[in-house]
Design a protein that fits this description.
Elements lengths: L3 H6 L2 H8 L4 H7 L4 H9 L1 H6 L14 E2 L1 H6 L16 H4 L8 H8 L11 E2 L4 E9 L4 E8 L11 H14 L3 E8 L7 E9 L29 E2 L2 H5 L18 H11 L2 H8 L1
Parallel strand pairs: 3-6
Antiparallel strand pairs: 1-2, 3-4, 4-7, 5-6
Length: about 280
Amino acid sequence: MESTCSRVLNTPELLEAILLQLPERDILLAQQVSRTFQAAITSSPALQQALFFREVPFKDPKIWKVNPLLREHFLPWFVISRNKWQLPDHSILERMDWARDHQRRRAFLRPTASWRKMLVTQPPAKKLEVYQHCHGQMDDVLEKASVHLKDLNTPGIPMSILYDISQRFIFQTPASGFEMTIKNTTSGSPKIILYLVYTVQCCITEDFMDLDLRSLEPGAWDMENLEFESCAEELLAMFGIWMKNDLTAEKGGVPLWEFERWNRERAPLSSLLSDVR
């Protein structure tokens, strides 16, 4: 005779209601419990929305939040504000917890990793602008490219494109860094802006990072997928205010003090000694 517990867990509506009470991480891991759990999670619109795989309808253009799982594992992207001359470079990415362990690193970088399909915000941001800022001795150059959802085949901007573009840019470019901001729009969905900043160097060292954190997906995005256009002078003049960000701690953003603590806890000893000096 089937037990009460079994009857509950074998009833899709009841199992869904129970799983919706769990944190996002536990819902994701619950797929490993059994085929019944996996089927319930993958077929439930509500659970897919909770995991940021499926779009939540908009109610208010200023009410949105970032994906807590992405915030945890890709923290450098979600910092609320930073000095634009001290942006994360590749050494910062190498300090992410999963990047420092060989087995976990391969798991995260595999093409089928679940985070690649996850929406960055819920309700989802539907527009991505990428600015490339070159700082040179003689002049600065600012270029802009836009990414359209029709090219992504997703309901919103996923983490995969932000990671691929940022990581490949700073992997290939010495003296470079990145910053992501999220801004409200009048159209309803928030807009994500990704800034890629680099300084022209006369002397380039080939070995300026230790780990290759490129995704193993063959079709991963990189700079070649973007069509940059030169920005007008007035936009370049406005570049000084690009740190404006509608991402807040309440929406899941990372305060600067939290990022600095995160960075100190993972920084190599040589880096900490240089700070003391």
